[in-house]
Amino acid sequence: MYVSNVKDIKSTTVNAPGVKNALKQVLIGPEQGWEGWVMRHFTLGASGNSPKHSHPWPHINYIVSGEGILFLDGNEHNLGPGSVAYVPGGTEHQFRNNGTADFAFICIVPEEGDV
User: Fold this and answer.
1) Is 44 among the domain residues?
2) CATH code assigned at 49
3) Which ranges carry the Cupin type-2 domain (predicted)?
4) Are the C-beta atoms of residues 61 and 88 closer than 8 Å to each other?
5) Domain limits at 109?
6) N or C: which end of the chain has fewer CB within 10 A?
7) Is the Cβ–Cβ distance between 38 and 65 less than 8 Å?
8) Residue 35 falls inside a structural domain
């Protein structure tokens, strides 16, 4: 069993090519007993973004706060609190903060996708 609060979970700066102003928290994964999957919380600050990329694993997203855009397979989708998205494996995608407040979202991936 595992219980915590996002405020108490360590945040790390994402340093990767194409990433701007992004923080990551691993909320639940194998270390907490959820084998094979990882639930992460990302925060993109003002003008922040993930890289435009694709990978073989899918991911499931839930928008917690802020306003942003999901570039998915050539189309842009406006996202806000309560928005959900499924990104199939092998699909080019990017999350971008298009507001001034933090854009925060949950991202669930198979364990091999938590890189």
Assistant:
1) yes
2) 2.60.120.10
3) 41-109
4) no
5) 22-113
6) N
7) no
8) yes
